[in-house]
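step=predict obj=MmgE/PrpD family protein n=502
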Amino acid sequence: MIDHHVRVHPSADRLPREDQLAWKLAAVATSTGEPDGDTLAMAVNRVIDNAAVAVASLLRRPVAVARAQATAHGGAAPGASVFGTNTRVSPEWAAWANGTAVRELDFHDTYLAADYSHPGDNIPPLLAVAQHTGRTGADLLRGIIAAYEVHVALVKGICLHEHRIDHVAHLGAATACGLGALLRLPTETVHQAVQQTVHTTTATRQSRKGEISSWKAYAPAFAGKAAVEAVDRAMRGETSPSPVYEGEDGFLAWMLDGPRSDYTVRLPAPGEPRRAILETYTKEHSAEYQAQAIIDLARRLREKTGPLERVRSIVLHTSHHTHHVIGSGANDPQKYDPTASRETLDHSLPYIFAVALEDGAWHHERSYAPDRARRPGTVALWRRITTVEDPEWTRRYHDPDPGRRAFGGRAVITLDDGTAVEDELAVADAHPAGARPFDRPGYAEKFRTLTENVVTPADQDRFIDAAEHLAELATSDLDSLFPAVETDAVAAYDAHLPKGVF
């Protein structure tokens, strides 16, 4: 691996393009070769995972709206598929619809380091462009692996959250790189596309603050759509704001640490295997990743606490990020509001712990139902739960060794007689270092569970078989990565949506 130091340069420096971060990211993408076995297998897992959560979200309003907007742009030849329909649309609109479907339930993969990410958000735009441009499954895999490599490197090296910049700024750059690898574009073309995408997808973190709206699901889809459009412009010879990261009026200087910015981004050397996807992990539960271990901890503690009416207080000792993003340290009263949106509740660790402690389980729909959130006993328990930052958990969150990194916490439950019940969990059960790490059968079972009564068992088998043979799929076979669903039910739901411009 090579450490690349990134800082602000005045225009007078005329920073050579080969010394710019965007160029170095593009070079990683355009030199990505064939994947090794472990990397290939994990990419297949994530294709299965994405399809599972996309199908499970088809009858949710934000997904239906994105789908309606996309299908209004049908007729592109050959076009790209949209989950839940038989319509082929222009690839940037397929990226929009499918990206929203994948993200809506907050239920696919994650990578946490200096910043946050959901690297699986790269897959919908890559699949759309692969279909439209006649690429093979092997081409798609090359693009996925390149996108993950760039995405993980940026998340390790550059923190956006401390400056309240939404994490999709790193996603856009990664997707542009993945598209460059998929299409085997010249480094110069990818360099321009990365810069355009970063310039157009930088947004504030208000989308994940306070009363969280449906834009949380749309944000990565918007970045994917922007990346497709940026690559298209770059392929036609258009240039970009440059250097987008290092310029004196650029991303680092005005969005991040300012003129004195100094970041290190570690990237693979030429010829070095691209294995960053193996550092990422998926979710067993439909909630913010930093709540995954806490849900498992609540299920374990349930047997030790006795009647929950006896609970006087619960304090969750956890990392800085967890406390300030989904804990009481966010200072968002909405995180304790029983009328809050689903998007807000899945970013409320006190709510999640209360429900998991009561139910001993977590469900992507039932656990967020309005009547569930408003249950008096739940509300009373919920409001007795707070989080605190523990420096040791913060240190473990940032441990340089992925095998020692921890995203959980310690729960201290104080009962009405003063008795304290304590336990802790470092990583979720499904984490690679957890009690029940997800493997291929785990991904397949998640797909079957989430698509039950939506995709027939025979069509479930067909989809899993196609995904497992992704490296061998011809262009025409990429359609098989979209599980067959009952489109009449989807169309009936869509028919009741209000109309927009399209």
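step=describe
The chain is about 45% helix and 10% strand.
step=end
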